[in-house]
Amino acid sequence: MQSSVRPTTTVNTNALHVSTPSINVVPLTAPVNPTPASMPPYKRSPRGRVLFYDKNKPYYEFTNFSPHPVEYNGKRFPTSEHLFQSFKFIDAHPEIAEYIRTCGDRPMAAFDEAHRYQSWVRPDWRQVNIVKMEEALRLKFTQHKRLRQLLLDTGDDELIEDSPRDYFWGVGADYSGRNELGKALERLRDELRHENNPKYFLQPHGKRDMHRLSLQDIPSLLSPMSAAGHVSNFIRTVSNSASSTPQSPISAVSASSKTMCEFCQQKPKFQRHRYCSRNCAQAAKMCIHCRTKPKFDKHPYCSKTCAADYVKT
């Protein structure tokens, strides 16, 4: 019986040479060289932003409602809002402009009174309102040195009127408004900064932004023929219903106020009463000067002293 032992063969390992490719292992912490496709695009650093609107927050002085009087043509206007609203009537109806100037120190009163006489606003107001706003702001910030310095201290920051309701002068609730008041302040800031450089004023600066239009810009952009074609029916209706006798602004407003409260002139009368509420009825009984004592008999004052003081003011 033969043995099942297989013959052994010897292999010379020194004669074998296995070539293995060299692999350069990059550690996980090694920095990766960015390729042109992976490099982020260059982004310019955004400008700073200065928001102004609320009375109890900084930069309320930038609004037209701030209590800073303005001198114009030798007359004192309680605020720049009084002057701006007076610009709507000062050429054709100076009596309305004077009434707005003296209607009170509250800027909201000037705003409300100007809206009462909306029918007598100069017809080209939509084209000159920004220019008139710049004029009112220029007088305000040049007549008050502290406001001038406050405006210059903002540097190159973007000035934004953070009004949630105004989409023309402010940015509105969704920040899609035109912010024309903020832009006017930025242009004024540049003027004050370069007031000693005459070459700066040889070229126009700060053109109007026509990329975002509001509804009030539409009439100025329409051609006369297209505008006449769209509103011809409306004009015909108004012409037929209008009176042939022209009315003065004061008489027309007086006629329309017959249905309004005789005291506040803001709300309609309650049923057949003369006033809109009990508060107005009680306030109407008080002296028109001191507002603390009731009127004497049928006179508008409580005493001769209040009558004399009211005439002086």
Automatic annotation (TrEMBL):
Superkingdom of the source species: Eukaryota
Pfam families the UniProt entry points to: NADAR
Organism of this sequence: Coniophora puteana (strain RWD-64-598) (Brown rot fungus)
SUPFAM superfamilies recorded: YbiA-like (SSF143990)
UniProt-listed InterPro entries: NADAR, YbiA-like_sf
Designated name of the protein: DUF1768-domain-containing protein
Domain NADAR: 51-193
